Each structure stands twice: as structure tokens, then as C-alpha cells.
Amino acid sequence: MSTDRATFGSKLGVILATVGCAVGLGSIWRFPYMVGENGGAAFLLVFIICTVLLGLPIMITEFFIGRHSRSNAAGSFKKLAPHTKWPLIGYNGVLAAFLILGFYAVVSGWTLEYVWQAMSGNLSGKSAADFTTDFQAFSSSVFRPILWTAVFIGITHYIIAAGVEKGIERASKIMMPALFLILLVLCIRSVTLPGVKEGLTFLFRPDFGKITSSVILSAMGQTFFSLSIGMGCLITYASYFGKDTNLQTTAVQVTVLNTLVALLAGIMVFPAVFSFGIEPTAGPELVFITLPNIFEQLPFGSAWSFIFFILLALAALTSTISLHEVATAYVHEEYQVPRKFAAWVVSIGVFIIGVFASLSFGVLKDFTIGGLTIFNALDFLTAKIMMPLGGMMICVFVGLRIDKKILKEELTNHGTIPFYFFHTYAFFIKYLAPLAIGLIFINELGIIAY
Ligand code: PHE
């Protein structure tokens, strides 16, 4: 293994980095709009079921693969199953990282535009309708969103190439709790708005009739996307875990925190959506047109939105770093090119994807693949196909290829910590998870649309 791969400073750093990888736009931007597009509470219910039954066990399994093999997303499979086709799971993950980063960087760029807007005082004194039209004018324009995408990829690139993870680690120790706090404040503001009843009903009272096969697929996709599972990120990160890191509790902590952030985001968004007459089905723009309305209602609104979008950008950054790292580590190690060169290859490639993803909100709006814009197609392909497929194969791999004794040894740190439901867990990943994911796929087969 090469020595210039990223390493984490401390035990807390490990947890924070993993939380940073998971918590990001997935919970704060994607989750609310998925809830909105998929009928509200019914989606939330399936999402939570998927998180507990699929998310947690798969995360533990990825931690196992990473720490046991101490290798990158593809290398780990090569180590554990040499001369087989299993590393394909890793290649699928690397490709997914690349594609996700392509559209994720666009939305990350949007957060920077809002930081800019807040600084220049442009977010105050507008009506709800203004926020919507302004956002649409911005996102559909050619130059600005691409510029911000480039800036965001540039920052990510700099961190990956210069290897300043330590700084990020230190920064996230302050920023992550700060983000959490500000989310809480915004939730409190939101639930004192007139639309609170409607908003919370939409979010929490399920209409079981709304649980369709496409809602189930979407909820499963959200679980994978939001927890960063099924594509090797967590394998890569776990390869840096210490031998005394408790893999089980780390997985539980990351999952709980991530779900909590998503719930807070939901509580923050939906009362406001109904108060300001915004469509819950607005799609990727939902958070960006809802939040400025809440800030408007607060004293020193611009200051709030400035702080919020800076923190959101940072949460996005800790995720883009992890995505970039998966692809860079792979190119660097697999093609034996210098790490800096690998980082450039990834950044340039991602930027090209980002340009198309960004333009698909404007000039390329009518260019569709299977009825989806480029942005939505990238999202669909990664979150709803590649990641669940990767997760399924990870379970099949460990279920078929790994001796249960070895699995248990690693997950209990050689017997020093208990694993109470080990047999249930082992049964889950060997049979239940692959079967469930397979069924959800089959159920949805042929319906390539939201
Ligand atoms: N989970 C991240 C988020 O919610 C996105 C992500 C997906 C990051 C896959 C890394 C890998 O924002």
C-alpha cells in the first residue's frame, strides 16, 4: 500500500471524517425534496425502515471490508479475493463516486452562490415568489453556476492534492456541531410559522396508499446516498480506522446522526413550504427556495443565511472530499501515477460532468435520457441503481466469501467487545439484504422514471 494516502489524526477525527462523509447535501438538500416528491410521510417511513434494515448492516459490512483489508475500494476486494471478479464491486463504486461528484459539485456550487448573495445583502426584502424566480434565473443561467461549480471542485481539489485533511478535520470539529445547532434554531423558527400543522402532517402522518414501488426505490436510494454506502467510500475510510475503533458503535453513531440531521432538515423545510405557498414537489430547488423565506423572518436575516450556507457548504465539502478521495486513490494506486496527477484527472473529469449537469437546468433542459434531464439521470443512475447494486454485491461477497469466524473476530476487535446480534446480522447480510434489494429492483424494472 502506498504511504501518501490520506490518514486521520485521531480517534475522534476518524468518527468525524466518517460523519462528514455521510452528512452533507444528502440529508439537508436531497432528503427534503425526495420527501416532497414522493408523497411525504410514507416516504419517510420506508426511508427509516431501509436505514435500519439495510443501511446499518451494510455500513458495518463495509467497515469490516475496509479495516480488514486495509485497502482502497477496489484493492480491498483484490486482497480478500485475489484473481476473481469481485473487485468489480469496487470499480462500480469508483465510477459512482465520479458521477456523484459531477452533480453534487453543482449543488455545492449553489450553496456558494447563496453565501455570496447573503454577503451582498441580496436575500433581504423579497417575497416568496421572488426567491423562486431568482433561483430559477440563477440555476438556468450558463455562466454563474458553472463558475461556482468550478470553485467548489477547485477547493476540493486543493484539499485532496495538498493533503490538508488535518485542517478539515479540525474545522469540522467546530463546524459540524455548529451546523447542528443552526438547524435546531431554524426548526424552532419553522414550527412557529402558520403552516406548521400542514407541514408536520405532510412529514409525519403516512398515507399508506402512497407507498408505490417507485417510492420504495426512491427511499432505498436515499438511504444509500445519504449514508454514503454501496460505493466504497466507507471501505476506504474504514481502512484508516485504528484497530481499537469500535466498528459497530461507529456505524450506529453515524447512522443516528445522519438520520437526525435529515429529520431536522425535514422539520425545518415543510412547515415553511406550506407557510409560503411553495410546492413540496419543487424538486432539487426546494431547499434553496424555502430557506431564504425562513431567514427573512428572522432578525438579521442575512447574517443567518450567511452562516447557514457557509456551514452547508462545509458539510458538502467534507462529502466531496470523500468522493474525490475514492476516485483519486483509485487512479493513483491502480494506474501508478503520482497522486497530484491523479487528482487532476479526477477534477477535470468531474468538472466536465458538472458542466453538463449544470446546463441541464437551463439550455440543456430538454435534452433527456429516459425522460430524465442529465442532472436527474446522474442522480438516478447512482443513487437508485449503482449504490444499491454495490450494497447488494457487498453483502453477497461477505456472505459467500468470508468465513464467519473472521467476520466476527474483526467486528468484535478479536473478542474484546460483544456483538449481541451477530447471527441476526450475519443472516441479514447473507440473505435478507440481497433479497430485499433484488426484489425492489425487480419490482421497479422497466420503470425508469420518478
Ligand atoms: N452521503 C453524502 C451526503 O449525504 C453524499 C455522498 C454519497 C458522499 C456517497 C460520499 C459518498 O451528502
Provide a descriptive summary of the structure in words:
Belongs to the sodium:neurotransmitter symporter (SNF) (TC 2.A.22) family. Its main location: membrane. Pfam families: SNF (PF00209). InterPro entries: Na/ntran_symport (IPR000175), SNS_sf (IPR037272), YocR/YhdH-like (IPR047218). This protein has 450 residues and is an all-alpha fold. The chain has one domain (11-444): Amino acid/polyamine transporter I (Up-down Bundle), CATH 1.20.1740.10. Helices cover 74% and strands 1% of the residues. Strands 1-2 form a two-stranded antiparallel ribbon. β1 and β2 (372-373) form a beta hairpin. α10 (213-227) packs across α18. The site of phenylalanine (PHE) has 15 residues, from α1, α2, α10 and α14. Phenylalanine is lined by residues 21-22, 24-27, 100, 225-226, 228, 231, 233, 319, 322-323.
